[in-house]
Amino acid sequence: MSKGTVRNSGVLTFRGDCIDYVTCYKYLGVQLSSNGKFTQMISDRCIKAQKAIFQLRSALSTTYNVSRKLALSIFDKQIIPVLTYGCAIWGQTCNIDTVAVTFNTPQTLSKKELSNLFQGVTGKIYIDFDVIRTSNNVRATIRINNPEHKAWLIMKQNVGPTPFTVTECSSRSWKKFEQIHTSFCKYVLGVSKYASNSATLCELGRVPIGIRITLAQILYWHRLEQLEDNSILQSAYIETRENDYDFIRGVRYFLKFNGLGDFLNGAKFQSPKYIKTRTNMRLSDQFIQSLESRLSHFENLLLCKPLFPYKHSEYLDNIRNVKIRNIFTRLRVDNNKLKAYCHKEDTLCSQCKVPETASHFLFSCSSGQLPTIRRKFDQNVENITPIFSSKSANEKLSIILNLDFSSQEAIKIACSFVKDMYNHRFKRNP
Questions:
Q1: Structure confidence by residue, pLDDT tens digits, 310-324
Q2: What span, in angstroms and rounded, lies between the C-alpha atoms of 27 and 53?
Q3: According to the model, what pLDDT value does residue 1 have?
Q4: Would residue 106 count as lying in a domain?
């Protein structure tokens, strides 16, 4: 395929029929473009998946008390196959990384000077970049489509006469797919679209769709490595490998960068199950480890939910009432109207003049009828679990938001307590 404008170089016929020159052609459900890109294919996958999600949400809305397990199971079995169809082919091509580089110097660097700095062994390492200048530093946002160039940038930071620091690396790979995934997860949790994506995935024990796409690519590469001799597909793959095309270069970089370089030499002697298990374990571990830094300011969630083992929070199954379950979720992921989590200058409780955190709200605040509701809860829960009153505020918060009680009666009392406190604080109808 040509990576430019389609040129009509003559008339092609097959069995007497004229073959048209087109910019896009669908083959086995995969849209092939004349420019060699899969942008149209990716958009088509997203549109089809969104239509399927609309039908799924319409069906789920007929039942008030939607099961989390059922909703996510249907999503995995009905939506993800639509969303990721053919991803082993097109997944690698939409991989564009954005790297933020900061020069800790007040001097003015022109775009030409920056361009000279971002030169690798084989020439420029970027597609393009933007520059933001402040009084203290110069910040450049670089877009890269070769993963080896990102590694080159990281290796070269703080080296040379004009040192720079790589402050952030993010990827536009599969961004549309992750938005569809996290949007549905927020619907299942009952939180707003402004809730943290990382916190939402953590509560449900979900991993990004990008892991599935990467797995599909690695397994497809493994299948190509094990092709029988003298096949047409093998000949095409050998040419791809000898010319070091993007697909091969991306797989090689991924395996080496993630400590899986032994796959490159012994792929023919390893089973697909072993490749899949080890790759999935490595990607999942990396994602879970990255959650700890991304969720560092979600103190309630980290207090209540251990990241290892990584699974959904048990309260989602224990609380059947949707409204009460949503209140617990908002308190855990800080997606609520308490002032300490609203990202505003005024974070103090209007009554007590201290930061209005979930711990303060549930156990210390003296506003309105909150002390009365709290005393009633303390009396009821002490009759069942006397040791609860001796716990610290953070321990009490963890016990309540995890519903870590030994009896069902205590769980019902805790649910009623949180609901009454939340409804009174925000003047909602019970």
A1: 888 888 888 888 888
A2: 25
A3: 47
A4: yes
**What domain range is 14 assigned to?**
1-35
**29: Cα separation from own chain's centroid:** 26
Mean pLDDT of the chain: 80
Mean pLDDT by 10 residues, the chain (430 residues): 55 80 83 78 89 90 75 93 88 60 66 68 54 68 64 70 64 74 91 86 90 90 85 86 80 81 83 92 87 76 76 86 87 78 77 88 90 92 88 88 87 92 76
Q: Which residues pair with 120 in a beta bridge?
A: 123
Tens-place pLDDT, residues 192-243: 888 888 889 999 999 999 889 889 989 999 998 888 777 888 888 888 888 8
Tokens for 119, please give them. 């030169």
CA distance 336 to 331: 6
Please check whether residues 109 and 13 belong to one and the same domain.
no
Q: Is residue 199 part of a domain?
A: no
Q: Which DSSP symbol is given to 133?
A: E
Helix axes 393-402, 408-425, angle to 10 degrees: 110
Q: Tokens for 127?
A: 């597609």
**The pairing of beta strand 165-171 with beta strand 97-103:** antiparallel
* DSSP H helices in 147-271: 147-156, 175-189, 197-204, 209-225, 232-242, 246-257, 262-266
In angstroms, rounded to a whole number, what is the distance separating the alpha carbons of residues 400 and 278? Answer: 37
How far is 421 from 74, CA to CA, in rounded Å? 35
Own/partner pairs, 317-326, CB within 8 angstroms, 24+ separation? 317/68, 317/69, 318/403, 318/411, 319/403, 319/415, 320/65, 321/65, 321/415, 322/64, 322/65, 322/66, 322/190, 323/419, 324/415, 324/418, 324/419, 325/190, 326/189, 326/190, 326/191
Q: What is the pLDDT of residue 125?
A: 54
22 is a domain residue: yes
Sign of the Cα pseudo-torsion (152, 4, 248, 254, in order): positive
Report pLDDT digits (tens) over 92-113: 644 556 666 777 665 566 767 7
